[in-house]
Each structure stands twice: as C-alpha cells, then as structure tokens.
Design a protein that fits this description.
277 residues, alpha+beta, 3-stranded antiparallel sheet, 3-stranded mixed sheet, 6 helices, 39% helix
C-alpha cells in the first residue's frame, strides 16, 4: 500500500480511539512513532449501540529526515604478508536434539485449542446478536415513526428474552384495543429476530407497564371463567388471544382442582378453553 503524502492530515474512525489509530496506521503503512496523533472525538458507546458515535482521530505522517552520509576516509594500503592456511578438518554438523511432544502434551493441547476456538466463535456470535438487537430497535423506531408515534425505546436483553420498552405520549395509540396494536408490532419484531439469529429468543414489547396490568386483568378473567364453567357444567371458551396472554390464563388456573385448560384453533384465532372436571 502506498504511504500518504507526508505532512497531510488524514481522518480515521473506529469504535474506539485505539481502533481508529490502528486503522490509520495500517492504511498509511507506518508505525506509531512515524505519525502525529490528534484525537478529534472519543466517541460514544450508546446503549447496545443505539445512539453510538464513532471515535475520530487525525493522523499526520512526520517528515523523514534524510540520512547524512559521512565522507569515506582514505585507506592507506598496507603490504599483505603471504601466509599459508591449512584448512581445518571438516566435522559432521551437529543436529539439534528435538524432543517429540508426549501423548499427554498432545492430549492437553488439542482441547485447549478447541476451547479457544469455541470462545472466539461465541464472542463473535454475541457481538452479532447485540448488533441484531440494535437493528431491531432501529426497525421498531422506524415503524412507530411511520405510525405518527414519537417514542424512546429502552432495550433489556436477558438469557432467552429481550424486552423493548417504549416511552411515549401516545400510549393508547401504541397499545390499541386490548393490546392489539402492540401485539401486532410484537409479532413483527419476533419475525425480524427469528430471521437473523439461530437460537430462539422471545421478544416482548411493553409500554407504560401494560403487560403487567394486562396480566392482572387476565388473571381475574380466568378465575371468573372457571367459576362460570363450573356453575354451567360445560366448557367455556375465551376470546382469541396471543400466546403470551394464553399462557397467563393457563398459569392462573393450573392449581385449580375443579377445572382444566387447553388451547384450540390456529393463530391468530387460537383461544383457551376452560373445562370443569
């Protein structure tokens, strides 16, 4: 790679100042000692990359001082005496002794190498997973913006679930009747994530603690439906609801010895049936 003109400042960006510096040194084909560094911006990490700003540096290649050659000193030739050199007897070259690795050393080295490889792969996967979460956050922000809803999105990833919590002045519009709008947006988010990560991770969208308030309402509905089913002596079906809400109904009646629950139908018309025992 051709080195840039000396004395000309060049800007580089990276996730950190060190990364931007390393990028610049590689591009200019110089060492750290051969450039002057000026930090323009330290950058910002943001939360999971949302609001992130790259670090920016400016590198200037230092001028190279020309080498000053010393004039050659005249050499007075001296008479050389004639000598007779008797060659020394040739010896067989000594081969260095190489000690082969023992079976135990090989047995230890292989697992260690595999462990390092697995760790590297896992680190890359985690980095990619965080990048997908950022992409999903940006996607949700764009969708809500097109709906005419201005919102701030907070992301909380856990082991098997990632939560996107919306802060907005248009809570009712974002939630919709019985959470229909929020649930539809959650289905879009789940589909977005499923297409980009291999492992199963559940996406839950929430606004103004709606999920918690809805769970309380569903618990009361489950208990009332159980009493009505026992009194009527026949199964009663609830209105269709998403899987997350059906789970609340099943859990609420799991310890009730007088009824049992099961789901029937296909999405999005799948519902919970409460049957007296």
């Amino acid at each position: 790679m051709v080195r840039r003109q000396e004395g000309t400042p060049t800007k580089y960006e990276g996730n950190s100042v060190d990364e931007a510096l390393a990028t610049g040194l590689a591009d200019l084909s110089v060492t750290r000692e051969q450039v002057e560094l000026h930090v323009l911006s330290q950058g910002k990490k943001g939360f999971l990359g949302i609001g992130k700003q790259l670090a920016e540096v400016e590198l200037t290649v230092k001028p190279v001082e020309p080498e000053v050659k010393q004039p050659a000193q005249p050499v007075n030739p001296q008479p050389v005496a004639e000598t007779t050199v008797t060659p020394a007897p040739q010896k067989e070259p000594v081969q260095p002794a190489v000690k082969p690795a023992t079976h135990a050393q090989k047995s230890v080295a292989k697992p260690q190498a595999k462990a390092r490889q697995r760790a590297a792969v896992k680190e890359q996967q985690e980095k990619s997973f965080e990048e997908v979460l950022v992409e999903l956050g940006n996607y949700l922000a764009e969708v809500t913006k097109n709906m005419g809803i201005s919102a701030t999105i907070n992301v909380t990833p856990e082991k098997h679930t990632v939560y996107y919590d919306f802060e907005t002045d248009h809570e009712g519009l974002l939630i919709g009747k019985r959470g229909k709008t929020l649930n539809s947006l959650q289905l879009l988010a789940q589909d977005f994530l499923d297409k980009r990560v291999r492992r199963r991770v559940r996406v839950i969208l929430d606004v103004a603690d709606y999920r918690e308030r809805r769970a309380e309402t569903l618990t009361h509905l489950a208990q009332k439906t159980a009493r009505d089913a026992i009194a009527a002596g026949k199964p009663l079906a609830l209105d269709p609801m998403p899987a997350l809400e059906r789970k609340v109904i099943h859990k609420s009646l799991a310890d009730n010895p007088h009824v049992e629950t099961h789901s029937r139908g296909s999405e999005p018309r799948r519902t919970v049936v409460v049957t007296p025992i």
